[in-house]
């Protein structure tokens, strides 16, 4: 492990917000499973909580953290260290902190209460969603020098992915309900990492019947191994692409 | 050691550096002077790779600085306003730099000792005064025994005692044959240090002379007066030099 990552992680741990986040995730997960009578119900509750809180905390914390690291970045830049390495170390440091807190907070109850394959699936998706939103935060914080603007942009992106997008999808469904739009819906789903994750889990939980005819189409696509792999790749693109764009910008940035 | 070829840089509409050519050699102690906003800091930051020039090349110790970072191990940089992680202590910052650099060569801790920074190791960077932060910057710049020292306004904010210590340190390093690049407004402070002068104005290098040449040409013994002399003579054919520039130079 390189030394910069070590310093980033020490700094994040000193911050204690990530510790609080771990505890919060643990409280939510344990209560979701112990309050609901069946593990499927518990999973559904937990799914909704995770898809709302994990993106929010990772995107906001990361954006503010990057802005606050301006001095740290500046200090390292005058040293013989590649820019790529500085940016990557920040990304890995933040990702590792969030992945570990997700595994400790939500992973343990998931593995205890949920059936093993859905539990692992949810754990994997939670980890990917954390990294996706960290990566989006990297992009929004490099886009502007203005801290308030950058944080504002992050909040807007969170609102869009977690709340607005669903609204838009519902609106489209109602407006075009006379047309055969089910296949298009599958493609539109790929435009939001949160929805992609949600559908993958719902299909795994065998509650897709609740989704009606669209659910059947989804099952046809996402239910197959190929569909699953494609959607997993799409999810990975959701963190690779924003990070990559942010890296290109960081390498050209004047400090 | 540092070879700058046709460097240009523009920040949106403002053209900060206009086709700058410079050659700096070993053993020289160069003063980079000029009015505020003439592009001194931008030039320094371009050498360090913190600002990426739009065109032109910078060659440090034979290495092109473009998309390269190894060359920076030869450079010690003291920024004008040192910005450090607020919640780290002085000791942690120094320790971190040592760990990240992992040099095998011996460390130069003279400045840490003479500034008595050891007593302050436990203090957080965020709570330090401007002068103490400058001391940390200076100590860091000299720590890894670099061949090239770039000091941006080194004595600004330092008390007379500390600034004397730093000046002595600069002279010692100069005598070891290192290249030292200093920007400063206080010309009188530089009198006994420097061998070359680069005067910048509006993103251009107005002149690059050795101190002896400057003294001979103008007949003045003090650098500040010599520069004022040159500027006054230039004003006849060049109206770009404002009166305030001259006043500033004369005052200091």
Ordered list of secondary-structure elements with their pairings:
The complex is a heterodimer of chains A (255) and B (252).
Chain A: H1 3-15, H2 17-35, H3 39-68, H4 70-77, H5 83-113, H6 116-143, H7 147-175, H8 182-189, H9 193-204, H10 212-222, H11 225-252
Helix pairs in contact in A: 1-5, 2-3, 2-5, 3-5, 3-6, 3-7, 3-9, 5-6, 5-11, 6-7, 6-9, 6-11, 8-10, 9-11
Chain B: E1 2-11, E2 14-24, E3 29-33, H1 40-48, E4 55-60, E5 63-64, E6 75-78, H2 90-101, H3 110-114, H4 130-143, E7 148-152, H5 160-175, E8 179-183, H6 187-190, E9 196-201, E10 204-210, H7 211-218, H8 223-234, H9 243-251
Parallel strand pairs in B: 3-8, 3-9, 6-7, 7-8
Antiparallel strand pairs in B: 1-2, 1-4, 4-5, 9-10
Helix pairs in contact in B: 7-8, 8-9
Report what the structure shows.
- The complex is a heterodimer of chains A (255) and B (252).
- With 255 residues, chain A is an all-alpha fold.
- Chain A has one domain.
- Helix content of chain A is 85%, strand content 0%.
- Chain A contains 11 helices and no strands.
- Chain A has helices spanning 3-15, 17-35, 39-68, 70-77, 83-113, 116-143, 147-175, 182-189, 193-204, 212-222, 225-252.
- In chain A, α1 (3-15) crosses α5, α3 packs antiparallel against α7 (147-175) and α6 (116-143) crosses α7 (147-175).
- The longest helix of chain A is centred in the middle third of the chain and has 31 residues, at 83-113.
- Chain A is globular and about 60 Å long.
- The mean pLDDT of chain A is 89.
- In chain B, a hairpin with a 2-residue loop joins β1 and β2.
- Chain B contains 9 helices and 10 strands.
- In chain B, α8 (223-234) runs antiparallel to α9.
- Mean pLDDT of chain B is 85; it is low at 238-243.
- Chain B has a single domain, classed as P-loop containing nucleotide triphosphate hydrolases (Rossmann fold), CATH 3.40.50.300.
- Chain B is of the alpha/beta class.
- Chain B has helices spanning 40-48, 90-101, 110-114, 130-143, 160-175, 187-190, 211-218, 223-234, 243-251; strands spanning 2-11, 14-24, 29-33, 55-60, 63-64, 75-78, 148-152, 179-183, 196-201, 204-210.
- Classes of the chains: A mainly alpha (255), B alpha/beta (252).
- At the A-B interface, α1 and α4 of A face α2 of B.
């Amino acid at each position: 492990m390189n030394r910069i990552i070590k310093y980033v992680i020490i700094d994040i741990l000193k911050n204690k917000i990530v510790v609080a986040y771990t505890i919060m995730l643990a409280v939510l997960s344990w209560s979701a499973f112990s309050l609901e009578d069946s593990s499927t119900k518990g999973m559904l509750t937990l799914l909704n909580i995770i898809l709302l809180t994990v993106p929010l905390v990772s995107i906001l914390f990361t954006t503010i953290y990057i802005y606050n690291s301006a001095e740290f970045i500046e200090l390292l830049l005058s040293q013989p260290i590649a820019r790529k390495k500085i940016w990557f170390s920040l990304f890995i440091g933040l990702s590792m902190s969030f992945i570990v807190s997700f595994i400790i907070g939500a992973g343990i109850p998931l593995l205890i209460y949920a059936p093993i394959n859905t539990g692992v699936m949810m754990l994997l998706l939670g980890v990917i969603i954390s990294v996706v939103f960290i990566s989006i935060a990297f992009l929004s914080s490099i886009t502007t020098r203005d801290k308030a603007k950058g944080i504002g942009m992050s909040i807007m992106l969170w609102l869009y992915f977690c709340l607005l997008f669903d609204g838009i999808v519902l609106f489209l469904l109602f407006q075009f309900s006379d047309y055969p739009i089910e296949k298009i819906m599958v493609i539109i789903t790929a435009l939001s990492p949160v929805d992609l994750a949600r559908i993958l889990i719902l299909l795994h939980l065998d509650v897709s019947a609740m989704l009606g005819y669209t659910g059947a189409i989804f099952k046809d696509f996402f239910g197959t191994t190929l569909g699953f792999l494609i959607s997993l790749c799409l999810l990975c693109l959701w963190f690779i692409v924003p990070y990559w764009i942010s890296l290109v910008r960081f390498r050209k940035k004047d400090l | 050691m540092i070879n700058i070829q046709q460097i240009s840089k523009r920040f949106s509409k403002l053209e900060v550096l206009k086709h700058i050519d410079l050659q700096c050699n070993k053993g020289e102690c160069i003063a980079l002077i000029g009015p505020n906003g003439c592009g001194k800091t931008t030039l320094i930051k371009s050498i360090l790779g913190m600002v990426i020039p739009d065109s032109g090349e910078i060659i440090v110790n034979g290495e092109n600085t473009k998309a390269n970072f190894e060359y920076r191990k030869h450079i010690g940089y003291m920024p004008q306003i040192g910005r450090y992680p607020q919640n780290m202590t002085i000791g942690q910052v120094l320790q971190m730099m040592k760990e990240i650099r992992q040099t095998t060569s011996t460390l130069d801790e003279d400045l840490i000792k003479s500034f008595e920074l050891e007593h302050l190791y436990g203090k957080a960077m965020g709570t330090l005064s401007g002068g103490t932060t400058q001391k940390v910057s200076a100590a860091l710049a000299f720590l890894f025994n670099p061949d090239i020292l770039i000091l941006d306004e080194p004595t600004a904010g330092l008390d007379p005692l500390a600034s004397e210590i730093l000046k002595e340190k600069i002279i010692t390093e100069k005598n070891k044959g290192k290249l030292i690049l200093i920007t400063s407004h206080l010309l009188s402070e530089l009198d006994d240090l420097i061998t070359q002068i680069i005067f910048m104005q509006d993103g251009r290098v107005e002149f690059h002379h050795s101190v002896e040449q400057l003294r001979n040409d103008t007949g003045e013994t003090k650098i500040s007066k010599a520069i004022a002399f040159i500027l006054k003579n230039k004003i006849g054919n060049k109206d770009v030099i404002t009166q305030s520039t001259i006043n500033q130079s004369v005052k200091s």
